[in-house]
Amino acid sequence: MTQASDITAIDLSGTWTVTSTDAMHTASMRVPGDVHSALIAAGLIPDPYAGRNERDVRWVAGKDWAIERTFDLPPETLEGDWYLDIGSIDTVASVYLNGVLVLDADNCFRRYRPAVTEALKAGENTLKVLIHSSIAAGARRQAEQPFFIPWSTSNSPIANGNMLRKPQCHFGWDWNIAIAPLGIYGEIVLRRLEVARIEHVTTRQFHHADGAVDLYVTATFHAEEPGILPVHFALGEERVRLDIGVAAGETQLTHMFSIEKPALWWPAGHGEQAIYAVRVETPTETVVRRVGLRRVELITDKDEAGSRFALKVNGREIFCRGANWIPADALPSRINPVAVRDLLQSAVDANMNMLRVWGGGFYEPDWFYDLCDELGLMVWQDFMFACNLYPSTVDFLDNVTAEVDYQVRRLASHPSVVLWCGDNELVGALTWFEESRRDRDRYLVSYDRLNRTIEVAMKKAAPGAIWWPSSPTSGYLDFADAWHADGSGDMHYWSVWHENKSFDNYRTVSPRFCSEFGFQSYTSMPVMQTFADPEDMNIASPVMESHQKNAGGNERIAGTMFRYFRFPKDFPSFVYLSQIQQGLAIRTAVEYWRSLKPHCMGTLYWQLNDTWPVASWSSLDYGGSWKAMHYMVRRFFQPVAVAAIPSKDGETIGFSVVNDTAEPVTVTLDTWLVSLSGERRPYRSIEGACGPDRAEMLFSVVSADLPEDALLFWSFKASNGMAGEGHHVSGTYKALDLQASGLTLDVAPRGDGRFAVTATARGLALHVMLEADVPGRWSDNAFDLTAGAQKTLVFTPSEHGAEPTFHWLDLHACQTHQD
Ligand code: BMA
């Protein structure tokens, strides 16, 4: 039986009580968790995601909240030094133990470990975390600034978020609900300091020419007074004991493991994801770091266009295919590893190998990066600064230094984390505000102080890791317009969405690496039904407008439909068409930019996921189901893919093949002319080859040779088994007098909870989407059929045992009542 004095840690997670400091509201609260979720569970506020409830819960962030619990400490346990281990408090908070202030916290991205020995007592102890309103704290800090620091009001209806080290999207974003959540998110544990605690475990690897790797593991210990600490370093079967004399404060100890014939970690699609677990053990603690052995370089060599931007992993340049990641949920209590794994798996299933953890959210928890390591998803990790200007006062920069030091040491061992980036769009933000336009010198210097602080702290914490100053930027100390300059660096290309340019406009730029570009769509109907009543199902209803956070977003979606399509006949058709056009927009960009390889070496579209049910640029619905675009993504991100790309003058249509694999491939391409009634006529067939890691033009068709009332269909098969198909329309879809496809569905339950659904077309069916009335995933979707053709898809309901009904939409059906 455990003696009380053997207790070295008391886990304080569980049920706490939350009370507004004006004593008006009280509820029990699950910790880790957020206050809004506790109030929802207690029935004190409605679900903010439903209807227009967002407005009705805003008051929560205007109050101060005390989160409290008691715990017992047996008298014989009192001896020794004790500290609290707090993973994350959101954000400006005072922590009291038995009425004694033990911590003032103001950074949600830092781990705090205050000493609490003096405040502890035998028997019942009371721990209170008093979280101050971030609205009030932001205003107070803004008033204390030596000069005004603007924030993006078009993103954030809640002011002064830039004053606080807290996810910037909590104050509202052009896809997020603005409720400024607050709470305690990480672990919260009372721990006894047994000689010393492990503060950090970091690793560095040195790769030798013969393939062997030296892995240096450094443990940093914190002690209150000098002592002797037995430490074990372990890697697989190898376990080494080192006794170390620790001083008061920090002491470091490094051990080197030599690994002969190492198994390397590779990005998805390029090899296996070998993981080695490194352990550092003391008598009371074990810290595990999952390490992958890989070398990463960022190639920025100069060339004729400017300079390259290519990631090289283990000596191979990797074309980065992926998307931007935002927090998994607007309410932290709703985030869980199962749902996040599903989102990440969807990224890999759609042939992605990289995600950019965007700078307006969180540094994600360890398990997020474990999943990325395991799945082979490289992570472009932003530091958490986005779209605003920021203070550069000494106290702010000190806070940032501590944050960067902690986060980088926590995460840098993950093989998935390949690049650290200073911020999101802070250079561009210098041009967005009257104040910074008027006095650019002041704000630019202020920015550079912040950026330099991040860089110095990052390089100290992870020497040798890759640093990129900002996204987007054309290069080091380049403060020009990286939204429109495409010769160097990474690019955010927003002209199609934010500047209302046509889809073709994507082909007017040749990015070296496009780290953001996006096009909005509506969230799928089953998700709509979770927040809107039938009478709200209209794009101009107040509920729909409150679930569209980008000013002008609905007009852009509708306006694009006018540009390319006949207007959809009803609301579900509008939703469907919004998703199809989104997929077509992003496909236009990706297919062209991939065809520029190796000039372009990456495309990360905006954005993978949603934080709540909203109209947005995501390809995955809130909840993880695939929008039409995600099925298209899987095709246009296939490692070997063929695309029909019109020339700039429109006179030819070139068939480009791109090969991201290390082996050469041969490709058989067949093309057909397809009439509006869906009859196919063989046109040209060709065999071509594409070397490893290249893009080639297979052949071109002269546009004038194509009959006006026919579509160009094509399908390809590559020698490595990859295959695909598509169609090209010379003008716009709206110019086509499409006819009813006469699609029929034949549903066969497979007996394993899944359903085989066979679609058969009588005529031409474009952009067919099969839909179920329950959540789930299709084996494929967003496809075409010509007359007499069939396709069988498998539907897997999210809930086993569901009995869905199925229906379909295609381009003709969505714009006419005749089907
Ligand atoms: C980019 C991002 C986000 C934003 C998105 C859509 O600039 O960095 O700030 O949500 O555009 O506007």
Helix-residue proportion: 10-25%
Distance between the termini: 74 Å
Question: Any idea what the CATH superfamily of one domain is called?
Answer: Galactose-binding domain-like
Compute the average pLDDT.
97
Under the CATH scheme, the architecture of one domain is Sandwich
The hetero molecules present are: beta-D-mannopyranose
User: Radius of gyration over alpha carbons?
Assistant: 28 Å
Largest sheet: 6 strands, antiparallel
Label the overall shape: globular
Oligomer: single chain
Classify the beta-strand content into a percent band. Answer: 25-35%
CATH class of one domain, please?
Mainly Beta
Q: Examine the coordinates and then state which fold CATH places here, giving the name of the CATH topology of one domain.
A: Jelly Rolls
Instruction: Find the count of extended strands (DSSP E, 2+ residues).
Output: 46
Report on this structure:
With 819 residues, the chain is an alpha+beta fold. Among the domains are: 4-191, Jelly Rolls, CATH 2.60.120.260; 195-283 and 285-291, Immunoglobulin-like; 641-735, Immunoglobulin-like; 744-809, Immunoglobulins (Immunoglobulin-like). It has 16 helices and 46 strands. Strands 3-2-5-10-8-9 form a six-stranded antiparallel β-sheet. A hairpin with a 4-residue loop joins strand 35 and strand 36 (680-690). Helix 13 (553-564) packs across helix 14 (571-595) and helix 14 (571-595) packs parallel to helix 15 (628-636). The chain is globular, with a radius of gyration of 28 Å. Bound molecules: beta-D-mannopyranose. Beta-D-mannopyranose binds next to loops. Beta-D-mannopyranose (BMA) binds next to loops. This is beta-mannosidase.
